[in-house]
C-alpha cells in the first residue's frame, strides 16, 4: 500500500523562459505570491435590507516575490536592470516547479508575462552575520497550474 505524504515546500525550482539557463538563476531561497483572489462587488436589492448580494467581478493575482543570496553576473539580474534603466519591458513566462524526492515536478505553476517591478538588496549590518539577500518582485498577468 502506498503511503501519501504532503509535499515539502523547500524542494522547488524556477525557470525563466527565453533566458539563458544558468544554474544560479534557478535557485532561490523562497518564493511567495502564488495567490489569486476574486474581486467582488456588493449590490443592494431594493426592499431587501437583511443582506447585500456579493458578485464576482475579476480575479487579481499578487506579485511574485523571489529571494536568494546576492549573485554577480546573472542573466536574470541583467534582464531586470535593463528594464529599470530603459523602461522597456520584455515580459517572460516563468515556470515554478514543486519537486518530489526524485527531483521530478509534482506541480508546475506557469506564470504568464512576468516583468520586473522591484529589485532590492537586504541591509548591510556589521552587527549581524547574515547573508546579503536580493529580492526580486515580478508583476504578471495570471498563472495556470499543471499537474
TrEMBL record:
It comes from the Bacteria. The lineage of its organism: Bacteria, Pseudomonadati, Bacteroidota, Flavobacteriia, Flavobacteriales. The keyword Transferase applies. This is Glycerol acyltransferase. The keyword Transmembrane does not apply. GO terms for molecular function: acyltransferase activity; structural molecule activity. Keywords: Acyltransferase, Transferase. It holds the Pfam family Phage_T4_gp19.
Amino acid at each position: 500500500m502506498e503511503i501519501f505524504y504532503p509535499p515539502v515546500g523547500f524542494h522547488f525550482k524556477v525557470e525563466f523562459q527565453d533566458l539563458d539557463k544558468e544554474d544560479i538563476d534557478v535557485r532561490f531561497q523562497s518564493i511567495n505570491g502564488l495567490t489569486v483572489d476574486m474581486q467582488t462587488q456588493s449590490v443592494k436589492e431594493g426592499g431587501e435590507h437583511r443582506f447585500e448580494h456579493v458578485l464576482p467581478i475579476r480575479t487579481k493575482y499578487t506579485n511574485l516575490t523571489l529571494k536568494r543570496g546576492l549573485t554577480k553576473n546573472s542573466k536574470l539580474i541583467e534582464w531586470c536592470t535593463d528594464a529599470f534603466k530603459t523602461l522597456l519591458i520584455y515580459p517572460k513566462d516563468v515556470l515554478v516547479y514543486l519537486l518530489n524526492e526524485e527531483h521530478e515536478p509534482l506541480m508546475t505553476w506557469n506564470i504568464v508575462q512576468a516583468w520586473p517591478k522591484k529589485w532590492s538588496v537586504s541591509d548591510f549590518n556589521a552587527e549581524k552575520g547574515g547573508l546579503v539577500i536580493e529580492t526580486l518582485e515580478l508583476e504578471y498577468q495570471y498563472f495556470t497550474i499543471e499537474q
